[in-house]
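Notebook entry, structure prediction.
Reason for the run: the old model in the group folder had no record of what sequence produced it. Starting over properly, with the input documented here first.
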Amino acid sequence: MGDEDIDKWLTELLDKLSDQKFLDFLDEFTTKHCDQFEEGEFSLSCTDIHNQYKRLFESRMESYLRKQSVTMDRFAELLQERIQKDPSYAEFLQVLINVDDLQSFSTMMIQKRAELEDEEDEEDEEEEGVDDMKEG
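New structure, fully documented this time:
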């Protein structure tokens, strides 16, 4: 398999993992489950949610790699080879590592929870402002 072939399917795989429909689905998933996460705490349900999230990525990757007749192990080898030749692929590897890491996932979920709470606070403030205008 030549460098151009590897570059082509790594780019295609990255495109598949960053497809807007998939990202929207991930956003829905994190919104649904982020309230389960607390700072410094990893309950069994958090671990289960993380495993579900990992599986979303893994199944998407495996589906693509199967079409390319490449195993996950071979993919890992090829990615490491590409990183040696082109360090920009290290970013792609870091994304995959972050998906697999419970601490990184938990941090992301806590941030998502905070964002949603901030949005709710802003909506509450806007509603209070409208109510004040009606009363005034």
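Summary: The mean pLDDT is 87.
The old model has been moved to the deprecated folder.
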